[in-house]
């Protein structure tokens, strides 16, 4: 039986990984940029950022997914399933990453920015080359948590009808009337998370050179 | 070529830190600013470096005005002429000593990377840090960090170099070394030096002029 269901499970895992990578590649850099914008804009944009973060953290990702895919068409904007998934996940994870970065940046000694100012570095240089690298090191464990959450959160996209890993497992359970596919699904999630934990550990070690 | 503060006043909230303070630092002199903790020495130093804005008075350096009566004038141009060695040095921990030295002049397009590295290695040689060029700051002792911070500030060839409590984290031997370096910067390179310190002994042996914050306030 494993032979029969494995291809569909692996295809599902492929979709899961695709959502995972696209979300991560978009949301982490976006969070770095938006946090810079928030820092440089002073008070002007603060309420906007607070509103966005409150909305993203205060409502379920499932609702956000459904709103964008099923709700937006009523507002005159129809998005493809993939587009809806990427937008919802990126918006949601960017909000969490911004908050993680904000915390980590406040842990960077303010003397670092002052030293940068005295040496004539631009504000942009101070943020991206002095504060952010130090903040990312502090933030790595928290970012790692979010990365593993993201692997598992991708299972939510089955509500939009996407055939990711969990959905593939469920249809196998229905087809073969056995709980075993769920066990395989669990093993695949574990394997993915295990792999990413290992990579995260390597990155953490790599950036702890000083 | 002199750094001049005239009638400066700074308040934090409702409490005045200092009022009507005037100070002048000329090339080649070593001014030691003394006074008890909490008297506002460091705040005055931060004002002179453009890290704090005094509400009143004027601060200028060889014609470049930093601020006037609570408004910034040319802070960027001003800061190019003044250097600061922080109390805790504020070296950038993720860069090697050499990178700490060369990034600023290259970023400001004052030197090519090769020129900057050449100058940095010469400075490190002079300060006995040549073998630490590729080390990260956390691997340095207090005295070595101090010298690295001095070298970093000197890369930009300031007219005035300020020190905030340079001996507070150093042992006797390193403090003597700092005296020697400061005197050589003033005598040989003609820098104006302003040192904020509460180390009386250090100030007496290092400074050409000792001033107390209370003496700088005019009562007119």
TrEMBL record, chain A:
<dbReference type="InterPro" id="IPR043429">
    <property type="entry name" value="ArtM/GltK/GlnP/TcyL/YhdX-like"/>
</dbReference>
<keyword id="KW-1003">Cell membrane</keyword>
<comment type="similarity">
    <text>Belongs to the binding-protein-dependent transport system permease family.</text>
</comment>
<dbReference type="GO" id="GO:0006865">
    <property type="term" value="P:amino acid transport"/>
</dbReference>
<keyword id="KW-0813">Transport</keyword>
<dbReference type="InterPro" id="IPR010065">
    <property type="entry name" value="AA_ABC_transptr_permease_3TM"/>
</dbReference>
<feature type="transmembrane region" description="Helical">
    <location>
        <begin position="58"/>
        <end position="77"/>
    </location>
</feature>
<keyword id="KW-0029">Amino-acid transport</keyword>
<feature type="transmembrane region" description="Helical">
    <location>
        <begin position="179"/>
        <end position="200"/>
    </location>
</feature>
<protein>
    <submittedName>
        <fullName>ABC transporter, permease protein</fullName>
    </submittedName>
</protein>
<keyword id="KW-0812">Transmembrane</keyword>
<dbReference type="Pfam" id="PF00528">
    <property type="entry name" value="BPD_transp_1"/>
</dbReference>
<feature type="domain" description="ABC transmembrane type-1">
    <location>
        <begin position="13"/>
        <end position="193"/>
    </location>
</feature>
<dbReference type="GO" id="GO:0022857">
    <property type="term" value="F:transmembrane transporter activity"/>
</dbReference>
<feature type="transmembrane region" description="Helical">
    <location>
        <begin position="15"/>
        <end position="37"/>
    </location>
</feature>
<keyword id="KW-1133">Transmembrane helix</keyword>
<dbReference type="InterPro" id="IPR035906">
    <property type="entry name" value="MetI-like_sf"/>
</dbReference>
<dbReference type="GO" id="GO:0043190">
    <property type="term" value="C:ATP-binding cassette (ABC) transporter complex"/>
</dbReference>
<keyword id="KW-0472">Membrane</keyword>
<dbReference type="InterPro" id="IPR000515">
    <property type="entry name" value="MetI-like"/>
</dbReference>
From TrEMBL, chain B:
<dbReference type="Pfam" id="PF00005">
    <property type="entry name" value="ABC_tran"/>
</dbReference>
<feature type="domain" description="ABC transporter">
    <location>
        <begin position="3"/>
        <end position="220"/>
    </location>
</feature>
<dbReference type="GO" id="GO:0005524">
    <property type="term" value="F:ATP binding"/>
</dbReference>
<protein>
    <submittedName>
        <fullName>Amino acid ABC transporter ATP-binding protein</fullName>
    </submittedName>
</protein>
<dbReference type="InterPro" id="IPR003439">
    <property type="entry name" value="ABC_transporter-like_ATP-bd"/>
</dbReference>
<keyword id="KW-0067">ATP-binding</keyword>
<keyword id="KW-0813">Transport</keyword>
<dbReference type="InterPro" id="IPR027417">
    <property type="entry name" value="P-loop_NTPase"/>
</dbReference>
<keyword id="KW-0547">Nucleotide-binding</keyword>
<dbReference type="InterPro" id="IPR050093">
    <property type="entry name" value="ABC_SmlMolc_Importer"/>
</dbReference>
<keyword id="KW-0175">Coiled coil</keyword>
<dbReference type="InterPro" id="IPR003593">
    <property type="entry name" value="AAA+_ATPase"/>
</dbReference>
<dbReference type="GO" id="GO:0016887">
    <property type="term" value="F:ATP hydrolysis activity"/>
</dbReference>
<feature type="coiled-coil region">
    <location>
        <begin position="106"/>
        <end position="133"/>
    </location>
</feature>
């Amino acid at each position: 039986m494993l032979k029969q269901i494995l291809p569909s499970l692996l295809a599902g895992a492929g979709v899961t990984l695709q959502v995972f990578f696209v979300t991560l590649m978009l949301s982490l850099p976006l969070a770095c940029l938006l946090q810079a914008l928030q820092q440089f804009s002073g008070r002007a944009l603060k309420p906007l950022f607070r509103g966005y973060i409150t909305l993203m953290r205060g409502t379920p990702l499932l609702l956000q997914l459904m709103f964008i895919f099923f709700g937006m068409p009523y507002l005159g904007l129809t998005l493809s399933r993939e587009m809806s998934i990427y937008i919802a996940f990126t918006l949601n994870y960017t909000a969490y990453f911004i908050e993680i970065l904000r915390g980590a940046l406040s842990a960077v000694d303010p003397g670092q920015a002052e030293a940068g100012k005295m040496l004539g570095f631009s504000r942009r240089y101070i943020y991206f080359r002095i504060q952010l690298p130090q903040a990312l090191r502090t933030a790595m464990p928290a970012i790692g948590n979010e990365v593993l959450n993201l692997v598992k959160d991708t299972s939510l996209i089955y509500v939009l009808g996407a055939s990711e890993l969990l959905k593939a497992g469920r249809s196998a359970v229905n087809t073969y009337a056995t709980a075993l596919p769920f066990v395989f699904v669990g093993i695949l999630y574990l394997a993915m998370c295990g792999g990413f934990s290992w990579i995260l550990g390597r990155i953490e070690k790599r950036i702890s050179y000083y | 070529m002199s750094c001049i503060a005239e009638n400066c006043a700074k308040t934090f909230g409702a409490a005045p830190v200092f009022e009507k303070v005037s100070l002048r630092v000329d090339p080649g002199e070593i001014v030691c600013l003394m006074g008890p903790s909490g008297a506002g020495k460091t705040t005055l130093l931060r004002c002179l470096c453009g890290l704090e804005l005094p509400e009143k008075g004027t601060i200028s350096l060889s014609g470049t005005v930093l601020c006037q009566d609570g408004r910034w004038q040319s802070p960027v141009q001003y800061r190019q002429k003044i250097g600061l060695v922080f109390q805790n040095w504020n070296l950038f921990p993720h860069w090697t000593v050499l990178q700490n030295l060369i990034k600023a002049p290259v970023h400001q397009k004052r030197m090519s990377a090769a020129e900057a590295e050449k100058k940095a290695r010469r400075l490190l040689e002079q300060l006995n840090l040549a073998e630490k060029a590729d080390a990260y700051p956390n691997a340095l002792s207090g005295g070595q960090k101090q010298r690295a911070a001095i070298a970093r500030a000197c890369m930009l060839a300031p007219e005035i170099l300020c020190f905030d409590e340079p001996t507070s984290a150093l042992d006797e031997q390193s403090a003597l070394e700092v005296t020697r370096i400061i005197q050589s910067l003033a005598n040989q390179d003609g820098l104006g030096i302003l040192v904020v310190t509460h180390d009386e002994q250090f100030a007496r042996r290092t400074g050409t002029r000792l001033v107390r914050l209370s003496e700088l306030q005019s009562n007119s």
